[in-house]
Amino acid sequence: MIRFQEDYSLKRFNTFGVEAKTKYYFEFTESEELVEFIKANESFTELNKLILGGGSNYLFISDFDGIVLHPAIPGIRVLGEDHQWVYIEAGAGVIWDDLVEYAVNEGWGGMENLSAIPGNIGATPVQNIGAYGAEAADVIHEVNLVMFSGERRQLTNPECQFGYRQSIFKNELRDQGVVTSVVFKLAKEPIFNLEYGAVKDAVEKLGEISLKNIRKAIIEIRDEKLPAPTKIGSGGSFFMNPVVDAIQYSELISNHPKMPSFKLSENEFKVAAGWLIDQCGWKGYRKGDAGVHDKQALVLVNHGNATGEEIARLACEIQLSVKKKFNIELYPEVIIVGKK
Ligand code: EPU
Q: Is the pLDDT of residue 311 over 60?
């Protein structure tokens, strides 16, 4: 297997399915391989680096002038357990949903609400993936990394500084290392989390409340609203849900009493970006092959041959229209890579 490539196409490594090439590409199945690669290549420090797992959160708008590191480290193993918890380690290359399925089948709780999120294990702590009232931070115990210096590091959950789609890996440790494996802490006696809107009804329709039925219900809800990654290119939610202050919130809610929102604190309210975009009339919009999903306005899609630039341009138009109508700034959750 050739692990190192030059001028390599990333089309099958990004869920938007856009064409882009990287100058260098390196794939590794053990953390030691990466350490050796770093030690053997003096020019490594100077190269632009991009870590690409499942590629579900990147939009390429041009070729990448640097090295793409693709962690393909496999394996799920039980590290230990006590009367309450099971600790399992998964390699960065494991598909997130394969791990969720495994945990649910074993009867271990904590991940079931995060069923069917695309992407690999390596990205879960970086992005602190979240859905249906749960987030990766709830189950992450430790994160193992190889730093670009070649040194190994291990961070505990509090050291990861998790927030809404945020972590130390996006801030202080950004572009400084690669997650090689994650240790998760799962509950032997699961506590079911059915707080989020549609989940409870969907589970009850399936029968008893169990991990398997929660997983099934979440997969059904996602299938209804989100495009199947194998059928149509997308990066999930394109924007983060914005947070407004109390003054702006009271003004907004008096003008739009139906606006979905969530109180974070006395002075912070999270507003549904999908609703804002929908209100601006974008749902189902299409220009060429770049479009807005017809069932969820927060998701931008590639109907076939859209370029990254076309999708990015559409995202800009959406940001401008939301700014104009609601005076709210939307920030992408998807990371845009390349030259503008
Ligand atoms: N809404 C509309 N029109 C739309 C889309 C949404 O009116 O076109 C309304 C919905 O009816 C609902 C509200 O906006 O009242 C919020 O929508 P939804 O419940 O679908 O969730 P979301 O806030 O859009 C977030 C995450 C998703 C996650 C879901 C479920 C972000 C940016 N997105 O979406 O995560 O699956 O909650 O928990 O936080 C992802 O990050 O890629 C992702 C898919």
A: yes
Separation of 4 CA from ligand 1 center, angstroms? 38
Q: Tell me which of 298, 301, 334 to substitute to probe ligand 1's pocket, judged by most ligand atoms within 8 Å of the beta carbon.
A: 298
Residue 158: partners with Cβ closer than 8 Å, 6 or more residues away: none
In this prediction, residues 129-142 reach a mean pLDDT of 97
**pLDDT at residue 66 greater than cutoff 70:** yes
Query: One of 135, 215, 237, 310 is an active-site residue; which one?
Result: 237
Statement to judge: residues 59 and 127 lie in one domain: no
Average pLDDT across the chain, whole number: 96
pLDDT for the residue numbered 210: 97
Indicate whether this model's pTM tops 0.70: yes
CATH number at residue 17: 3.30.43.10
Distance, CA of 168 to CA of 154 (rounded, Å): 13
Same domain, 239 and 315: yes
Residue 278 is part of a domain; what is its CATH number? 3.90.78.10
Q: Is 62 a catalytic residue?
A: no
**Could you tell me the two tokens for 162?**
């998790």
41 and 120 share a domain?
no
140-164 pLDDT per residue, tens: 999 999 999 999 999 999 999 999 9
Q: How far apart are CA 294 and CA 283, in angstroms?
A: 5
Token pair of 76, please? 């799920």
d(CA 324, ligand 1 centre) in Å: 21
Task: Tell me, yes or no, if 165 is annotated catalytic.
Answer: yes
- Among residues 165, 167, 181, 222, which one is catalytic? 165
Q: What integer is the mean pLDDT of 79-83? A: 97
CA of 201 to the centre of ligand 1 (A): 17
Token code pair at residue 42: 């003096």
Query: Does some domain include residue 210?
Result: no
Query: Average of pLDDT values for 273-284?
Result: 98
Q: Could you list the residue range(s) of the whole structural domain that residue 280 is in?
A: 233-337
Residue 182's nearest CA partner among 144, 156, 126, 216 is 144
Strands 261-265 and 268-271: antiparallel
Residue 253 Cβ < 6 Å to ligand 1: no
Flag whether 228 is in a domain: no
Q: How many domains does the chain have?
A: 3
Distance 145 CA to ligand 1 centre (A): 31
**193: in domain:** no
pLDDT at residue 2, as a whole number: 63
Query: Do 49 and 86 sit in the same domain of this protein?
Result: no
CATH number at residue 172: 3.30.465.10
Catalytic annotation present for 321: no
